[in-house]
């Protein structure tokens, strides 16, 4: 059996500013670091064999914090990076709503119809993320694996395990920073043990995520 622990990076400065990040990056906030430390403490008694992280610094820094003093490898993989958002990257949500209203509406509410003029579509994202996921599963049978990535990537992975269609990708639960999902796979039998759990959070931590 393989046990897959999945999480999103901690809160970043651009999360606070409500900017789209995509393949660009911004630093973890003080709260983001605290979120990662709380998840580290929650997982302190779990034995991880390996950690996979997006190569983007907000995810890799989160992975380093969660790793703590474990002597295990963190493997950076660009296929676990956030969705590439082209000309939207660095812009605030309200700027995108004003200038790209139709695309923005489809992005959130009808992802199966979203066709970006620049950047990456959901089908492209699915191909690279699920291809990467299958490789991780194949290479790590019998292990505990932590994957540290981004909102859309975690959404896509969980939708894959749930057989959830693309048009329902953004259905709840919300993927808060450092929320935790756990999937166990035994002889091709998939069991979702946890999905976007935030029981390690303090009460105020849902703000500006």
Automatic annotation (TrEMBL):
What is one cellular component GO term in this UniProt entry? cytoplasm
The Swiss-Prot or TrEMBL record annotates one GO molecular function as: phosphatase activity
Residues binding substrate are 8-15, 58
Q: Which UniProt keywords apply?
A: Glycolysis, Isomerase
Q: Per its UniProt record, what InterPro entries does this chain match?
A: His_Pase_superF_clade-1, His_PPase_superfam, PG/BPGM_mutase_AS, PGM_Phosphatase
**A Pfam family matched in the record:** His_Phos_1
Q: Which residues form the signal peptide?
A: none
Active site, UniProt feature:
9 (tele-phosphohistidine intermediate), 82 (proton donor/acceptor)
Full protein name = Probable phosphoglycerate mutase
What organism does the UniProt record list as the source? Paramaledivibacter caminithermalis (strain DSM 15212 / CIP 107654 / DViRD3)
